[in-house]
């Protein structure tokens, strides 16, 4: 049996409390990781508030883990004690369904999120299946790398699937997801336009690599971009002028949604038909996709812009995240 110190959510919206938790025996295909850093994602806040109705309390949140392997199950493969690794949104999948066997393990219907029915990374120790415990490339800024494992792959995946270096790409929303999307798209060679509702972010967006910046609250400015973009990646979770964004797509263009928009997305299908445009969406990515993203980040020296807190100040960090003041991702440094 192994015990871990963890910051536990005991009920919705309540402050987290430190507790010692028994993890039980290590499963044959599991890996146990000592947490060094863990990003604080907006999904952790949604789970704490039970916004999605899927949180089981008590809960240990945290799913952007950087740490060292301290134990390896008897059937785990490819990892050794002492190795630096990362664990993201997914802690395991069935490994035998069609999606898993085709390399789309993140689409497995039995995929096990790290913070849903599983103890996450706001703890001294966390566990995951060996295939979802990811090797980290040389040259990666590990102290700031945690948010790449969730937010980073979320915006990298649509670029890898649908963009080319010659593409004109728009990133809608320059926040925790969007600022990484701008960095990735610029490094990929795309012509990048950042859409933000905050004029205070214009210069920062350019600093992240955006070639153009547009106010998402300026309908006339957006109207001038009609038939422009090969790919629009929507990272926000609020309702937008969907018709204007669809009009901004070039023929054969795609609007790809990665932000969990609460309200239904309504639009006329006529512009889609006559422009041969489409709308799509995606979650995170497979283990191989995440490793490709990490290698790309290391090669191009891409890291999220972060604020660091000791994990003992986790409740303060949650408050800053909820206030919308974080620039742009919060990382908690283990101090158990």
Summarize the structure.
By secondary structure, the chain is α/β, with parallel strands linked by helices. The chain folds into two domains: 2-150 and 285-333, Medium-chain alcohol dehydrogenases, catalytic domain (Quinone Oxidoreductase, Chain A, domain 1, Alpha-Beta Complex); 151-281, NAD(P)-binding Rossmann-like Domain (Rossmann fold, 3-Layer(aba) Sandwich), CATH 3.40.50.720. Helix content is 24%, strand content 28%.
Which structural traits does this protein have?
336 residues; alpha/beta; 6-stranded parallel β-sheet; Rossmann fold; 2 domains; globular; 7-stranded mixed β-sheet
Radius of gyration: 20 Å
For the record, what CATH class of the largest domain applies? Answer: Alpha Beta
Our measurement of the CA-to-CA distance between the termini, rounded to an integer number of angstroms, reads 19 Å
Average pLDDT, rounded to a whole number, is: 97
Please mark out the parts with pLDDT under 50 across 5 or more consecutive residues, or reply none: none
The number of helical segments is: 10
What topology emerges from the helices and strands here?
Layout: E1 2-8, E2 17-24, E3 30-40, H1 42-48, E4 65-72, E5 84-87, E6 90-92, H2 98-101, E7 112-113, E8 125-129, E9 134-135, H3 151-162, E10 168-172, H4 178-188, E11 191-196, H5 202-208, E12 212-215, H6 219-223, E13 229-234, H7 242-248, E14 249-257, H8 270-275, E15 278-281, H9 287-299, E16 306-310, H10 314-323, E17 329-333
Helix pairs in contact: 3-4
